Amino acid sequence: MAGGMAPARCSSPRRWPSSLLKTLTAYPETCIMWATELRTRGASNLLISPAISTEVDPVERSIRVPDSDYPISIERSEDDVMVIALGQMIAETRRSLEVREGRGRQPAIRYIPMADVDMSLLRPSATLVYCPYKGDASLFTLFANERDLPNAAWCYRAPHWAVAELEGHVAFAPSKVERIAIRPAGGGGVEWT
């Protein structure tokens, strides 16, 4: 678990404690890990948004448009991007999308075209994640070399119209994979980061 924190128990079937909400909003990847943990403890209808980290009834899901309070920028990139997990290259591309959310409070996430991802290594996860800005996320568990990484990748198969460019792309949780290496377009002798 990130930061060594244990999942909190939800006293209400529809709301998380406010102290927990602040933590999850600051660390969106934690949402995925906590969703997995809560689901293993019996939570049902669990939909968690990285932007607004609350348990939401499927009927009550709202759609929000990125704005000045919560901006989302999507830029096409020709940088070389390589994802390594479980000792194996999972993806390699020069056609990623660099997505920045929430006034720079969160690190940029690279979304990689599915055509550039070894999709045979990804299996659908049972975890449900919803973001009011992007839509329903399909999570994947990575399987390679007889090991697995639960909920290490995700995609938006039918993203909301404001982020429609994300369709057909996969993102990887930096805290789950061994490395997301990026070399600026043109290389020019620059080391992979």
UniProtKB/TrEMBL annotation:
Coiled coil: none annotated. InterPro entries: DUF427, DUF427_sf. Residues 82-174 form the DUF427 domain. Pfam families: NTP_transf_9. This is DUF427 domain-containing protein. It comes from Acuticoccus sediminis.
